[in-house]
Amino acid sequence: MRRVAVTGIGVISPLGNSPAEAFANAAAGRSAIRRIDEPWCKRLAAPLAAGVNFNGDEHFAAPKLRMLDRVSQFAIVAARQAVADAHLDLANADRQRLGVFIGTGMGGSQTTDDGYQTLYGEQSDRIRPFTVLMGMANAAAAWVGIEYGVTGPNLTYSTACSSSAVSIGEAWLRVRNGDLDIAIAGGAEAPLSFGALKAWEALHTLASIDPADPATSCKPFAKNRSGMVLGEGAAIVVLEEWGRASKRGANILGELIGYGLVTDATHITRPTIDGQAAAMRAALQAAACVPASIDNINAHGTGTQANDAVETAAIKQVFGSDARRIPISATKAIHGHLLGASGALEFALSLLAMRAAVLLPTMHLAVAAEDCDLDYVPNCARQGVKIRTVMSNSFAFGGTNAVLMARSGS
Questions:
Q1: pTM for this structure?
Q2: Which residues make beta-bridge pairs with 359?
Q3: Residue 309 and residue 179: Cα distance in Å, rounded?
Q4: What is the DSSP track for 366-391?
């Protein structure tokens, strides 16, 4: 089996529209969670979101922009960043040895929502002619492939909140097994439309507004946690066969060494301890690592009552006596839950934290819940910590649990 290097990262996120900016804000614990200012927010019980400061006009010519849902815009720009960061010359690459792997939970949901508003709200008989092409789930992946003329596999994964972690893991398998030399992998999500937010509100999973400071409303592992906050954005990594990357003198950002994928198959929304633990064990086995070798875990950490307690118990089951030693970061507290894009963003932040020797904080954690009693790096980053191996957890509605592991490339 071949080693797989991460040679590029791209990020469009509530924390910033570059890897460096997003990481700096994550390390500083700056929350991107805000009240929604749109007029329709008054019809939401919890009008909170973590939005991206992004203008498609700055990145695309008007004719192309008219065919791109916001989710595709995010994916393309993040892919451009990742490819540039990797200093790849794809013009002279074997296009059939390249692959695109993108995860998304809701696809072009804004286009779909706009279409329904036009048909039912405005009583119009006509909607945008590109509605199907903009709203289809594989649009983001297709556009990234077109951007670089990729004629190898172009695949879309939709496993709810683990979508982009699955896409990175499946890309890793293709490169590791020798099917591809390079993969552009990650995820994108743009769910901040009225229809999508009302749908999530109906599930009673969204956080209530903190009366003292709305930015602190998402509180993973805290005693007073009340739910999650939706976010939007994209994160893309370039995966490359290690020997090829080394030969061309690439700046190797880390090595992807493990991927665990299991399914609960018990309940459509309720997580299980055994399922999450099985995914972590599978990643450790794939990486040929013992639990004691893990230096940091980026938790799924949504801020919901069920997930945080189950994830804590699953970590204890897998790591035993080491569970209390391993620092655990839950960055959704400040960038929100990007649904299908969360796994990629959190994996990217984990890589950047490893390189910077920084343990990212879990913000807004004043008092931990009684059943959440591990080291969550509360409220302040820890600097100068040697981090050799990291784990990033992504657990989803539908029961698909995906775990990624990376090792320092130095």
A1: 0.98
A2: 382
A3: 39
A4: SSB-TT--S---BSS-EES----EEE
